[in-house]
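Tutorial handout. Part one gives the primary structure; part two gives the three-dimensional structure as tokens.
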Amino acid sequence: MLNVPVIMFLAALAILAGVVFVALGRGGELGTDTASWTPTSGGFMNMAGVQVQLPPTTMIGYDVHATLDELQWLAQALSDRNAQVAALRTEVARLQQERAEPADAAAQMPSAAPPSGPADAE
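Part two.
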């Protein structure tokens, strides 16, 4: 029966052989992980959808390219939403101004007083 030092020596020899094999360039390389992730499709996303959106992961950590694509999409979506909010605020201000103008015009018009003329002189 083999004793422990012999088994340890064989394990160390196997590890050393693997290191030499890899150092000589015959160990192969890790393949690049191409995640089966597609960027979020366009369209409206509410804040609840943004909160549950998780970055796509790989075997170790996050998929850098997919995460950057997602962050760029979110930045563009927020920019579009801010532009839409600004346009709606401008429209509301214009409508409020139009609504206030007729009331101002009616207040500035002189009241209809009865005409004074020769009939009143008698």
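Part three, for discussion. The two ends are 145 Å apart (CA to CA). The mean pLDDT is 76.
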